[in-house]
Amino acid sequence: MGRERVGGAVVLHRIDERVPDVLRLAAATVGTGAVRRTATVGGNIVGSTLRCLLPAALVLDARATVLESDGVREADLAEVVAKRPVLIGLSWRTPIASAYRKLPGEAGGAPPLVVASALHAGHGAPHLVRVAVRDGYEVLSGAAPGGTDADETLDALRGTALGELPPDAWDVVRPQVTGLLESDGTD
Question: Which of 3, 101, 149, 151 gives a 20 to 30 Å CA spacing to 31?
Fold first, then answer.
């Protein structure tokens, strides 16, 4: 585990400040302490129907290293979720800032809403805001230029797959994106 990578066999309770806040916070919300001491990064993303880490990995623009019958290779997360190979690890670009929120859920009820977001440096272009939301069992994500006007960024995000989200999900997305854009650039 390091600043821009984590192994698939790392148990969730071992994820610490060496990774971006969005991934650390996501890992901290998975199940109980007993679950976090046995559940792994790879198991959560590939083997779990809830995939609590997936929104965090998506906003980090993570790439997966996977093991398949023909060897080890790099894959994007959509392929990993669809094909379910052995996940060896994740790597990503460190964001300027990131955020994560998991709403409370009811025991035995639908999975709670999860919102993850990250602000990435633009490298000669405007910054980029990535947002991923787990609503029930579905994960939607989108990206938009992240300037100083949060309303413009939110409008652009509504033009992505995130536009399908219900209004109550936007009530969580809106302050998270606004907070990222107002952040002091620390994660």
Answer: 3
